[in-house]
Queue: 2 jobs
Job 1
Amino acid sequence: MAYVISDECIACGTCIDECPVEAISEGEIYKIDPELCTDCGSCAEVCPVEAIAPGE
Ligand code: SF4
Ligand code: SF4
């Protein structure tokens, strides 16, 4: 199950460099490609607004 970025995202860009498989793309709200995400959790650890969580 891929991690998901919520509406809380402030587009700070911190998470994008943490992803080892380049699953995160930029935007007004950043997005995680569920096909690429390996559930490592690295992005969630660095998000300053806790906008990233495991998907349900
Ligand atoms: Fe990338 Fe890991 Fe975050 Fe998935 S959980 S988007 S693989 S950093
Ligand atoms: Fe959005 Fe959090 Fe990523 Fe910053 S670190 S771009 S707030 S999801």
Note: Residues 3, 18-19, 21, 23-24, 32, 37-43 surround iron/sulfur cluster (ligand 1) (CB under 6 Å).
Job 2
Amino acid sequence: MQNTTAESSVEQVDVAIIGAGPAGAAAAAWLARAGLRVRVLEQSQFPRFSIGESLLPQCMHYLDACGLLAAAEAGGFQYKDGAAFCWRDQTAAIQFTEKFSPGPGTTWQVPRADFDQRLIQGAQALGADVLFGCKVTDFTPDALHPQIRLVTAEGEEQQLQARFVLDASGYGRVLARLTGLACESVLESRCALFMHVEDRIDTADYDRNKILIGIHPQLPGVWYWLIPFSDGRASVGVVGDRATLEQAGLDDAERLWAMLRQEPRYAELLKNAVQVRDTGRLEGYSAAVKQLHGPGFALLGNAGEFLDPVFSSGVTIALHSGWLAAPLVQRQLQGETVDWQTAFEQPLRAGVDTFREFVLAWYDGRLPRIIFNERQPERIRSMISAVLAGYAWDASNPLVAASRRRLDVLAQSSIESPFDLTQAPA
Ligand code: FAD
């Protein structure tokens, strides 16, 4: 797999990929299957925990296209066919199979330690070379020979020269930081507290095939997730501004449980739950970059932009970016000129922009108002369902083509909705 030149002892590969999460695994699998020498550099040892456990059906297409669907399927993950919402005594459900866009209508809810390991093992089986415990520390951009500096699991400093580098380092945002591309997100800084529980849910009307998203009855800026897995465990979390969450208890575990007890549906569902993983906290996770590519490199998944967890778009965007970038890298290495702005950045951002509009409409109350409107025409429901199922790049969906304007109109026309815009945070 590896080459060294006579004049230099720097190891050489075709494509170096930083990070072995979903974005890195998807790109590695595609490129290795195409016969390129791919080296993935991953700082942790797998399996490793990651947040982001609810997938969207659009993911299945990318997994398939990258040759990873069978590897993921073997995990026996919890089937998922939609999203349920609750607020006070109101409930609503979005059924992904009844969506506007063509494509898969179901997916999974996955413990990411297992899911991510299966994906990267799938990439290895297709020929990708993966180094775990190996941290990328420096980078020299170059259109033909970008170079990486890394520290191996044994503490040894090494250099690696590639013909192209893909940064899939997630929250590490390695190249965005090292190349000065990182910038502020337009989204507010929020805080998430989360854990895994053995859920012991015995409520008859509870649908394990859907993520449950709840809105705090008095604090509309605070929302919850409940993502059941196939083994009787579930991921549970709360998102809000830091001050609100911190006043709820003395430590994060106490705060999370206290916030859960304030939402009647969650309090009821989780009354017998037993915590099986320490409470985690992530904050200020929304991040952006000025550009998603540079000389000899491109940014994938969270290493580029991360929006917000509310619609579970993170893994879908990560897989989409790997699936989109990989064939472009192959073409470039075959000698073609690739315009990364028009072939990668613009099309990737189109879907991210759609999700961003939905996230903004969630927090200012327009989207809850639309979702809790029982009289929403079926066709509108199917358009919303398509975006929430991850089909945010399908411009034939009017809610994708003109998201902001149409969300405005729908919110205004949802006069029957019990969710009043005045209840949304300022
Ligand atoms: P990651 O999965 O983060 O992988 C990046 C990898 O790079 C890691 O393994 C890391 O160890 C490695 N790395 C980092 N730095 C270096 C370095 N210097 N050298 C070598 N390796 C490095 N998304 C969903 O789809 N569904 C959800 O339900 C969901 N819930 C979320 C809830 C919260 C509270 C948050 C904050 C996010 C959530 N997300 C969700 C988003 C999701 O976590 C990410 O979008 C997704 O994991 C991104 O995948 P990735 O491949 O880009 O990066």
Note: The two ends are 56 Å apart (CA to CA).
